[in-house]
Amino acid sequence: MQNVTFPSNGGTAHGYLAVPGSGSGPGVVVIQEWWGLTTHIKDVTDRLAAAGFVALAPDLYGGSTTHDSDEAGKLMGELPVDKAAQDLGGAVDFLLGHEAVTSSKVGAVGFCMGGGFVIVLAAQQGDRIGAAVPFYGVLKEDYPDLSGITAPVLGHFGEQDSFTTPEAARGLAERIRSESGVQPDFRFYPAGHAFYNDEDLLGTYDKAEADKAWTATLDFLHANLT
Predict the structure, then answer these.
(1) Domain that holds residue 8
(2) Distance CA 91, CA 58 (A)
(3) What is the Cα–Cα distance from 63 to 93, expressed in whole angstroms?
(4) pLDDT-based confidence at 200, cuts 50/70/90?
(5) What is the pLDDT of residues 141-182, one digit of tens each?
(6) Domain holding 194: CATH number?
(7) Terminus-to-terminus CA distance in the chain, angstroms?
(8) How many domains does the chain have?
């Protein structure tokens, strides 16, 4: 586990890299929530490495993190979607060029704001993304053109989520279907927003449902990344 830098958008981006004990594996980009590159996101990256993946979590806020919802909303609001997507594209380049990465495509897993960016990244990167997993995705603006998505998509959403409502999630699924032809597998859990976040910043962590979603995610990534 180490902090790394990689070229992106004509400059340098930073991130947290975790490599499995075997020394190699398929690549996965991990995309942060609106809180920033927190200990929770680093822990998720480590969990993916423990499951056999080379996982990279880019730092989209340039070192800033917060546990305050108002500040998180401000940081998210000040983050240009295009710049973040370019940083994430740099992360894809980094993984595909890394000696430890065995896959010809990379996976993308993201949470809250990062879940929204998973969909954007899959649309922008096309067949360089081999598996896309948004957890309760949120964007501050409408999704751009999604016709570039070629990867299979597995989404996890809470039935009691007031940020990304089930209706909004179903609308996103329909947009993915109609614009890209990909049939996403969106699953709904009896839980609220951020039910996978065991730092429990919103008080909605649900271990039983989180474990179900995580097991499905690992199975999906293993099945689609070779």
Answers:
(1) 2-224
(2) 7
(3) 21
(4) confident
(5) 889 999 999 999 999 999 999 999 999 999 999 999 999 999
(6) 3.40.50.1820
(7) 22
(8) 1
Among 103, 126, 15, 6, which residue's Cα sits nearest to residue 54?
103
CA–centroid distance for 136 within its chain = 10
The Cα–Cα gap between 99 and 55 comes to 13
Q: In whole angstroms, give the CA distance from residue 154 to residue 133.
A: 5
Tokens of 54: 């080379």
pLDDT tens profile 66-108: 999 999 999 999 998 878 888 899 999 999 999 999 999 999 9
In residues, how long is the chain?
226
Asked if residues 139 and 116 have their Cβ atoms less than 8 Å apart, the reply is yes
Q: How far apart are CA 115 and CA 42, in angstroms?
A: 16
Q: Which two tokens stand for residue 178?
A: 């109609």
CA 34 to chain centre: 12
Distance of CA 171 to the CA centre of its chain: 19
pLDDT single digits (tens) 52-70: 999 999 999 988 999 999 9
pTM to 2 decimals? 0.96
pLDDT tens track for 19-51: 999 999 999 999 999 999 999 999 999 999 999
- Picking from 79, 82, 117, the residue whose alpha carbon sits closest to that of residue 10 is 82
Measured at the alpha carbon of residue 58, what is the angle toward residues 57 and 63, in degrees to the nearest 5? 115
